[in-house]
Design brief:
This protein has 290 residues and is mainly beta. 0% of the residues lie in helices and 34% in strands. It has no helices and 19 strands. A hairpin with a 4-residue loop joins strand 10 and strand 11 (141-145).
Length: 290
């Protein structure tokens, strides 16, 4: 009894030619090309065209793949599905295209790369190595997952932060407040209208204080030069001691008033131990006039 089903075969072992025609459902084997052909009827019922399946001879059961071929008069499709890999069943698939290949369990992306459409999905962070970024200020640390947001924040009135096109910029705001001590090791230049020092004790190493500008004047501005001070005597008052521009004399005043750096008020009494003067003009000494 014969137990072999024969179909049309290649004329020789190395023959790679495809069969010119097959009747509907008729099978043929091409040994040189390693292809199995099945005759397919066209939709219009005309000529019979060959339909081939490549390299099926190398696929057998138990290798982690299921192979099925659709039936009916419509165009048939070959479906290959892989089983889940196990310790004893892995690396069994081996196929390749121009851009993608799988061999011995490894996936390789070739020259074509991966399209944006293929990357439109997402991969869970837990599936990636180093899926977190650790942010630290030197003392505190926070782990931020990929896709999260890291915020750079400044301190109000101390540091301002700006971001533009991926660049983060740090700087001082227009109005700066220093919460603790400030030490300036270089020169300090203050260009402004008013400088106010609210300190209990002020110490200066410079033995000479210069008033009236940082350059030699070229004209008379008719302003006095000296020190204005506040004191209380029954009410808040202003005192002044310095150079009176109008009298061209060093003057001390009580109950003084300041009008655009020109002082007026009551001449203050002076108590000293010894007075040495080249001349005394209009003075009253111990009730007498000299």
């Amino acid at each position: 009894m014969a137990n072999t089903l024969k179909v049309k075969r290649s004329a020789t072992f190395s023959d790679t030619g495809n069969p010119s025609s097959l009747t509907y459902g008729e099978m043929a084997w091409n040994n040189g090309g390693n292809k199995l052909f099945v005759g397919k009827q066209t939709n219009n019922g005309g000529t019979v065209e060959p339909f081939h399946i490549s390299t099926l001879a190398d696929i057998t059961a138990g290798e982690g793949l299921d192979v099925s071929l659709g039936s009916g008069n419509a165009d048939n499709a070959l479906t290959i599905s892989a089983e889940d890999a196990t310790v004893s069943n892995k690396g069994v698939a081996s196929f390749a295209t121009a851009d993608f290949s799988v061999s011995s369990g490894a996936v390789a992306i070739k020259s074509g790369g991966v399209s944006n459409t293929q990357l439109a999905g997402s991969i869970a962070n837990s599936k990636l190595a180093n899926s977190q970024i650790t942010v630290s200020d030197g003392s505190n640390t926070t782990a931020t997952s990929l896709g999260g947001t890291i915020t750079f924040a400044g301190t109000s009135n101390e540091i301002e932060v700006a971001e533009s096109s991926g660049t983060v910029t740090y700087g001082l705001p227009n109005n700066v407040t220093v919460g603790n001590n400030l030490t300036v090791t270089g020169n300090l230049t203050v260009n402004g209208t008013t400088t106010t020092v609210n300190s209990t004790t002020t110490t200066l190493d410079d033995p000479i204080l210069t008033l009236g500008g940082d350059t030699a004047p070229s004209s008379d501005d008719n302003k006095d030069r000296g020190v204005e001070f506040r004191y209380y005597s029954g009410s808040a008052k202003i005192g002044y001691m310095g150079w009176d521009d109008s009298t061209q004399k060093f003057t001390m005043l009580t109950d003084a008033s300041n009008s655009s750096e020109v002082f007026s008020g009551t001449l203050a009494p002076l108590q000293i131990g010894v007075l040495t003067a080249s001349s005394v003009d209009g003075a009253t000494i111990d009730g007498g006039t000299y």
